[in-house]
Amino acid sequence: MLTITKEFHFSASHVLDRLPSWHPCARMHGHNYVVVLELSAPRDALTEAGFVRDYRELDAFKKWMDDTLDHRHLNEAMGGVSPSAENLAVWIFDLWSERLPELTAVRISETPKTWATYRPAARGGEDAP
Ligand SMILES: Nc1nc2c(c(=O)[nH]1)N=C([C@H](O)[C@H](O)COP(=O)(O)OP(=O)(O)OP(=O)(O)O)CN2
Ligand SMILES: [Zn+2]
């Protein structure tokens, strides 16, 4: 299995309003988010050029991210889903997995020290069918 990743950046605010009120993240605050898309393909399924998928074909994802998430309030942009890093990873995966069939994982960083990864078992890795 071959795996490629590409990193994207956006800035947004959120409120984790399902947390208890004493929790700092229950207050409005913002992050400079990092999103990493991971795409995978078996070695015998690479394109003629030797790509899992051309990185440049991910320009559409960047445009969507800029339009939908950048400088937005994630509680609104995500339609009421609690905007944790975990839920954001799942939400992005579910929105993009049909358009990017090679998508195997979405990783989200809110701070330089934190990462959340959504990697559905059936879609990638050594155990994939
Ligand atoms: N499992 C999760 N825990 C937390 C999430 C999350 O999405 N998933 N989100 C937050 C906050 O939104 C934010 O990311 C703060 O995280 P935290 O690590 O507390 O950030 P700090 O910069 O304040 O941490 P320091 O330890 O002071 O560097 C909270 N938890
Ligand atoms: Zn936060």
- Low-confidence sequence ranges: none
- Measured distance between first and last alpha carbons: 12 Å
Structural class: alpha+beta
CATH topology, anyone? Tetrahydropterin Synthase, Chain A
Task: Work out the helix count.
Answer: 3
- Measured by DSSP, the beta-strand proportion falls in 25-35%
Q: Helix fraction?
A: 10-25%
Number of beta-strand segments: 5
Topology:
Elements: E1 2-14, E2 29-41, H1 59-68, E3 72-73, H2 74-77, H3 85-96, E4 103-109, E5 116-118
The structure holds ligand LPXRUNBV and zinc ion.
Pick out its properties:
129 residues; Tetrahydropterin Synthase, Chain A; 5-stranded mixed beta sheet; 3 helices; 29% strand; binds zinc ion
Describe this structure in words.
The chain is an alpha+beta fold. It has a single domain (2-123), classed as 6-pyruvoyl tetrahydropterin synthase/QueD (Tetrahydropterin Synthase, Chain A, 2-Layer Sandwich), CATH 3.30.479. The chain is built from three helices and five strands. It has helices at 59-68, 74-77, 85-96, and strands spanning 2-14, 29-41, 72-73, 103-109, 116-118. The chain has a five-stranded mixed β-sheet with strand order 3-1-2-4-5. A hairpin with a 6-residue loop joins β4 (103-109) and β5 (116-118). The radius of gyration is 16 Å and the shape is elongated. The mean pLDDT is 95. Bound molecules: ligand LPXRUNBV and zinc ion (ZN). Ligand LPXRUNBV binds at residues 16, 25, 84-86, 110-111, 113-114, 116. Zn(2+) binds at residues 14, 29, 31. Keywords: Lyase, Metal-binding, Queuosine biosynthesis, Zinc. It catalyses: 7,8-dihydroneopterin 3'-triphosphate + H2O = 6-carboxy-5,6,7,8-tetrahydropterin + triphosphate + acetaldehyde + 2 H(+). Belongs to the PTPS family. QueD subfamily. It comes from Streptomyces cinereoruber.
